[in-house]
Amino acid sequence: MPRKKIKLEHSVEYLSILDEKGKPDKDLDPKIDKDTLLRMHRTMLLSRRFDEYQLRWQKQGRIGTFAPAKGQEASQIGSIAAVEDDDWMVPSFRETSVALWRGTPMSGLLLFNAGYNEGGEIPEGQNDLPISIPVASQITEAVGIAYAMKMQKKDRLVVSYFGDGATSEGDFHEALNFSQVFNTPNIFICQNNQWAISVPREQQTESRTLAQKALAYGMPGIQVDGNDPLAVYTATREAAERARKGDGPTLIECVTYRLSVHTTADDPGKYRDEEEEEKWEERDPIPRFQQYLKDRRILRKKDIDALEKEIDDEVKSAWDEVEEQIESLDDPLVMFDHLFEERPAYLEEQRQTMKQYREDNDG
Amino acid sequence: MAELTMVQAINLALEQEMEKDDSVHVLGEDVGVDGGVFRVTDGLLKKFGEDRVMDTPLAESAIVGMSVGMAIAGLKPVCELQFSGFSYFAFHQLEGQAARMRWRTRGRYNVPMVCRIPYGGGVRALEHHSESREAYYAHTPGLKMVIPSGPRNARALLVSAMRDPDPVIFFEGKAIYRAFREEVPDEEETIPLGESQIAREGGDLTMITYGAMTHRTLEAAEKLAEEDGIEAEVIDLLSISPLDDEKLSESVRKTGRVVIVHEAHRSFGPGAEIIARINEKSFYYLEAPIQRVTGYDVITPYFAREQDYIPDVARIITGARQAMAD
Ligand SMILES: Cc1ncc(C[n+]2csc(CCOP(=O)(O)OP(=O)(O)O)c2C)c(N)n1
Ligand SMILES: [Mg+2]
């Protein structure tokens, strides 16, 4: 037969557990324990309020450009809460909720956003990579780390984050292909927040879903309601089980929305209408999750009020801490640190030149 | 004549050339609806439509690779890479294809494309948004590398670049995008690629610079005149490759003393090549070792300390005084 069909049995599952009013599908509810649920909620709320404060501080010039996570808290927390603390985490540049969950102090994030390299330090014991700005480039590193875990027979997997726009970069495709070929324990979390700066999801790719991109590499891909922390959690949990069993990687597309600016240097008024934003405001992951927690009597209105107050104090005192820290960080000679294990002579000479110059000019 | 910022002047060059030549296409991330993240391409989509002003998916390699193909087949693409820090995603297309196509096909194909790339620091941006790595491109045979220093020469250089039969890397200094305005005539102006300009005349010292650093260098030259009575000649290179050897030689032979100022890293930076050229052509005219005032050989620090990295007026003056020492 010169022509025949090659049968490909491909489909992409869509998973949603909480409806828009916060009512769960009882059969699908992952029954997360109460402490974890409360911690998830707290971190989502903290991330939201932290974003809001940072937007204000950015306008006042206290910090520089940053990318708010607003709207994507469920995608971030639902996924990271489903893996172990000693698993690896490889972020892009918008994973504030994830960073907070992992234990990165707010003061560190603030210091980073205030333009100090010291803010990029990864706390000891946290298996996290630093913020990666070149879109999609971190995904290949995530595969390398996962391969190392496999070679060293460590029971650890790697969760990596990126956006819808990132799926257009070669690095994304190369990473997924390598991961499947080398059967590495990776979970790829694509936060499809509908926009890559001004380019809408429909213009980024003609594929119906982003999850289906995995299928080309022989990898399972699943699409979940990214504003539903239970759905994201469940999908990630399943992917983690598979990865730990040696069954390889998974791509999870979290359908969510960037409720805020791309970064503080961006003006969404130029390319999207408020109606769309309002539509997604109604699907805000935080009130929805709160409703679920209230219905389960895990959280009461007055707990939320108390938590809001606590978080407010926490964020403000993080800034106070940073302000104090900044005063001790006026030495620009640190720019010569951490380039190599040992500083070569030519670089030491440049460092001495800067030092001398500063002394001569009362720097 | 209108007083324009560099953003507006580049926009004017694009608009006029697109009007004149319908083979000119603009493509890149966010260049259409958004008008570019720096608004350089603002209004072009409305005027020329989405076939000629293309909002591409997020993939630098494809943006450049597609431009190479378009150029081979008779279009004149002007692609934008959002920041020089992301141009490396497309480096293999620039080095392996754009730069080599004419050479590889023995002249059968050429690649008349322009790759516009914002570069440089000073705008309190994030990592990868502040580097000055023009040396990568100037080091690549088959590419031309130009860097304007203000609205008027940006407009003229871009017109020349768009008409050039070969690939041109066009760096735009973010720090001077909106820092000042200049009179830019409505009627067309061009500056031949490979030609530098004398930004200030003087006979005591030659200061060689380009791009955003031109302004700090000019400021330093004024201070040197006031405080030391030194009259410095400031050469604004405009083209990093090809270098204007002739103008450099002329000035160096007149002054015998040279300081080079660039934001780029010191080692293997443009200054190193300029010194070599001067040594080759005018060594016996030199009265003192040539000085370099440059960025350090460190990754450009996050913005709280970027001004300690970028040469400032005081550092330039120090370098100039060293060049004047006996
Ligand atoms: C390689 C690269 N190209 C361009 C940019 C500039 N840029 C920063 S974020 C962004 C859009 C990213 O979209 P997406 O992947 O959907 O992530 P989101 O910002 O929506 O979280 C662009 C073009 C970059 N950081 N890296
Ligand atoms: Mg996106």
Explain what this protein looks like in three dimensions.
The complex is a heterodimer of chains A (363) and B (326). Chain A is an alpha/beta fold and 363 residues long. Chain A folds into 2 domains: 13-330, Thiamin diphosphate (ThDP)-binding fold, Pyr/PP domains (Rossmann fold, 3-Layer(aba) Sandwich); 334-363. Chain A has helices at residues 34-59, 73-80, 96-102, 106-113, 137-151, 170-181, 201-204, 229-244, 274-281, 285-295, 301-327, 345-360, and strands at residues 13-15, 88-90, 158-163, 186-192, 195-196, 199-200, 221-225, 250-255. In chain A, strands 1-7-8-4-3-2 form a 6-stranded parallel beta sheet, sandwiched between helices. A two-stranded antiparallel ribbon of chain A has the order 5-6. Chain A is globular. The relative contact order of chain A is 0.15. In chain B, helix 3 runs parallel beside helix 4 (91-98) and helix 9 (245-255) packs across helix 10. In chain B, the strands form 3 sheets. Chain B has a 7-stranded mixed beta sheet with strand order 3-2-4-5-7-6-12, sandwiched between helices. A 5-stranded mixed beta sheet of chain B has the order 9-11-10-13-14, sandwiched between helices. A two-stranded antiparallel sheet of chain B has the order 1-8. Chain B folds into 2 domains: 2-184, Rossmann fold (3-Layer(aba) Sandwich), CATH 3.40.50.970; 197-324, Rossmann fold. The model of chain B has no long low-confidence stretch (mean pLDDT 98). Chain B has 12 helices and 14 strands. Chain B is globular, with a radius of gyration of 19 Å. Chain B has 326 residues and is α/β, with parallel strands linked by helices. The longest helix of chain B has 16 residues, at 213-228. Chain B has helices at 6-20, 44-48, 60-72, 91-98, 101-104, 134-138, 151-163, 213-228, 245-255, 270-282, 306-309, 313-324; strands at residues 2-4, 24-28, 53-55, 76-80, 114-119, 144-146, 168-173, 182-184, 197-200, 205-209, 232-236, 239-241, 258-265, 291-295. At the A-B interface, helix 12 of A face helix 3, helix 11 and helix 12 of B. The complex binds thiamine diphosphate and magnesium ion. Magnesium ion is lined by residues 163-165, 193, 195-196 of chain A. Chain A: It holds the Pfam family E1_dh. Chain A: This is Pyruvate dehydrogenase E1 component subunit alpha. Chain A: Keywords: Oxidoreductase, Pyruvate, Thiamine pyrophosphate.
